């Protein structure tokens, strides 16, 4: 089925980007491939950034409309699916995709009314472990391991290009439609669970709490819960906790 | 002129490049995707160029080994096939290819011992008509016509990436390996949960219980839990229920 050229595009999220030049170059790359929404989480040099505007060239409107967030949780709250780009596969129990596979998934999810975001980490370090626990899948760009260090904007352009090619191509449409819960709903459930567990003394070894919290989030993210299922799960948590 | 039939990758030719930064970024992109040979035809700001070296990052050897030519004829003399990238299709009687189609051709020609080159024009103007008459095919990167102006290094990275993917095949990124819980373990957790919910009065409408049970089982099955995750979940259930 041919895709409407007005097909909604993924949101690009840059987590803690360092250089304005790279933000601008990323925006220009987005514009080249029909992606308009840019979100920045704690850009190092503040915002607005003159260098970003210059490097964006004709895509200045993408820079002007970019939103800035202090926590990445806010940047992904209204998204249904988050793809975390990393330079290497990590030991995380979520699918690992090539940019092409991710692009095809994103196009299919959009046809079902689901908003996707592709998240990129800081130039020097890449994505930290914490944002990755919010992701539905890792996206690993295949590179020559001898020169694995990739420029941020060039990683963005490859993902944007693959999305554009996938969105303009022809793909089979899955008839199964399901309303995925938004990240906001998932987080609400997760907070509910974590708070309940804390109350009940689940985290008996404080040093292990962060990794336990990450593992639980990964499990719950992977399940692709619908809004209805999130409500059911919250009912389950409520019921299990019962009256104190 | 003799060519190295073992040459594993295409040659990148930049015709009259203007900015050292773009030359360096192009070299870095080449390094990321296993392409080593860079040739420059009349770089505007001369050569060597300090900015190119800085932007190349870890791919400094590609910059150091780059050759400079005054005429593009010399830069392509030992090549068998030349691909000319342009931002728009031109009125030239040669095939017009996407970057992906060109990449597949280049891989095939290399298998037959033929050396290919991919040629890029100056930042401001793109390739002039004269070099295009030496090309075997045009390569047009599909872009959003509203933001058609593409950065030179980003055009290079897309062609380099497509070649790498075509030459190396879909890189098997480590599939997320994990030990799925057995149905026995899943059922044990499920029974634990259902019993706990019953004790807590979750199934307040007996008529709805069977469908609620089915829905919960579906959710928990879909998540593909590992044995370790099942143990964690049972710990969660136990903690939430607490002491009666």
How does this structure look, described?
- Chain A is an alpha/beta fold and 244 residues long.
- The first copy, chain A, has helices at residues 20-32, 50-56, 60-64, 72-76, 99-111, 129-132, 152-168, 183-199, 209-222, 227-241; strands spanning 11-15, 38-41, 67-69, 81-86, 96-97, 116-120, 137-140.
- In chain A, strands 3-2-1-6-4-7-5 form a seven-stranded parallel β-sheet.
- Chain A is globular.
- Chains A and B meet through α1, β5, α7, α8 and α9 of A and α1, α7, α8, α9 and α10 of B.
Features:
globular, alpha/beta, seven-stranded parallel sheet, 244 residues, 45% helix, homodimer, disordered N terminus
Q: Layout of SSEs?
A:
The structure is a homodimer of 244-residue chains.
Chain A lengths: L10 E5 L4 H13 L5 E4 L8 H7 L3 H5 L2 E3 L2 H5 L4 E6 L9 E2 L1 H13 L4 E5 L8 H4 L4 E4 L11 H17 L14 H17 L9 H14 L4 H15 L3
Write out the strand line-up for the largest beta sheet of chain A, numbering strands in chain order.
Answer: 3-2-1-6-4-7-5
What is the 3D form of chain A?
A: globular
What is the alpha-carbon Rg of chain A in Å? 19 Å
Distance between the termini of chain A: 55 Å
Give the strand tally of chain A: 7
Binned strand content of chain A: 5-15%
Tally of DSSP helical segments of chain A: 10
Oligomer: homodimer
What does the average pLDDT of chain A come to? 88
* Major sheet description of chain A: 7 strands, parallel
Please bin the fraction of helical residues of chain A: 40-55%
H/E topology pattern of chain A: EHEHHEHEEHEHEHHHH
* Structural class label of chain A: alpha/beta
Poorly predicted ranges of chain A: 1-5, 170-177
Please report the two chains with the greatest interface, counting residues with C-beta closer than 8 angstroms to the partner's C-beta.
A-B, 63 and 63 residues
């Amino acid at each position: 089925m041919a895709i409407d050229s007005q097909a909604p595009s993924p949101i690009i999220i840059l987590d803690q980007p360092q250089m304005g030049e790279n933000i601008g170059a990323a925006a220009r790359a987005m514009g080249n491939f029909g992606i308009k929404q840019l979100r920045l989480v704690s850009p190092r040099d503040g915002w607005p950034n003159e260098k970003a505007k210059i490097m964006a060239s004709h895509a200045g409107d993408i820079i002007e409309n970019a939103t800035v967030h202090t926590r990445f949780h806010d940047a992904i709250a209204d998204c249904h699916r988050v793809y975390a780009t990393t330079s290497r596969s990590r030991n995380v129990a979520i699918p690992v995709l090539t940019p092409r596979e991710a692009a095809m998934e994103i196009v299919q999810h959009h046809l079902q009314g689901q908003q996707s975001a592709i998240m990129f980490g800081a130039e020097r370090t890449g994505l930290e472990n914490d944002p990755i626990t919010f992701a539905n899948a890792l996206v690993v760009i295949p590179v020559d391991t001898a020169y694995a260090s990739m420029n941020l904007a060039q990683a963005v352009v490859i993902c944007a290009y693959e999305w554009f090619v996938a969105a303009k191509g022809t793909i089979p449409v899955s008839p199964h439609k399901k309303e995925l819960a938004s990240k906001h709903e998932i987080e609400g459930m997760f907070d509910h669970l974590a708070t309940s567990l804390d109350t009940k003394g689940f985290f008996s070894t404080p040093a292990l709490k962060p990794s336990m919290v990450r593992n639980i989030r990964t499990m719950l993210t992977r399940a692709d819960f619908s809004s209805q299922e999130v409500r059911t799960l919250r009912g389950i948590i409520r019921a299990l906790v019962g009256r104190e």
